[in-house]
Target: D-2-hydroxyacid dehydrogenase
Amino acid sequence: MKVLANDGISKSGILALEKGGFEVITTKVAQEQVANFINENNVDVILVRSATKVRKDIIDACPGIKIIGRGGVGMDNIDVDYAKSKGIHVINTPASSSESVAELVFGHLFSGVRFLHDSNRNMPLEGDSNFDGLKKAYANGTELRGKTLGIVGIGRIGQATAKMALGLGMKVIAADSFIPQVDVKVEFFDGQSITTTIVSQSLESLFKEADFITLHVPAQDGYIIGEKELAIMKDGVGIVNCARGGVIDEVALVKALDSGKVAFAGLDVFESEPKPEMAILMHSKISLTPHIGAATGEAQDRIGTELASQIITLLS
Model:
């Protein structure tokens, strides 16, 4: 059987699939050519990340597909229900990238509270001529310890983020329509651990209480954070989105950054991805990454081997 890993797969995933008797194709096929390639090469399984879309047209055009796999959590680039109605297995790897995304969230938080993103832009330009000026500009940093982190969506990634926040000595609050409460276990290097219970509260109360807010939700029909929500937040709040583009109103966000209502934002995803708006890209108060939340070697190894395991189980 043949597996097309159109958005790539780790070496460990390839080896596991090959050991299970599968042929793995890692050719990057253009979106408009995916259906033809699948049919011409008798592909049984297509694996994607976020770039390739598997919609109704591809599903209808490729009756030989047995499995559609998503390397990661969100499956908004796949017509999941339609695929299942055609008897196709749809799989993903919800647990594999949680820690990687959570660490990126804190990369953005640390960058924001210590102005690292802007300092790294300006030090090469002015570090030799305006050292004291830059030192003064970036001197009013903030500690994360003792502050309140509001987590919108306390699923696997939200919980991984909560563990890191608790380890830093932050207070953690959460809002989640589907998870009323969750026990979060923070494990240490020496085998010791602590467990704390986080009870979901309303979004409105979270927005009012949190010093920093991080989003961990799937794609939405509307904004979770817009002008109304920004208005009730604390002055000087920091906002991070490593979830999905389109859950924050970017026009309202820029306005709030310009007014000082929001101290900084950290964005890994964007409304108009893969061509983010220039007003976002050029803003001195936004820490930017190009949708790399799950892009660590460790996460990709876990994703590859987990996908391989599910495929072998389903088709063996």
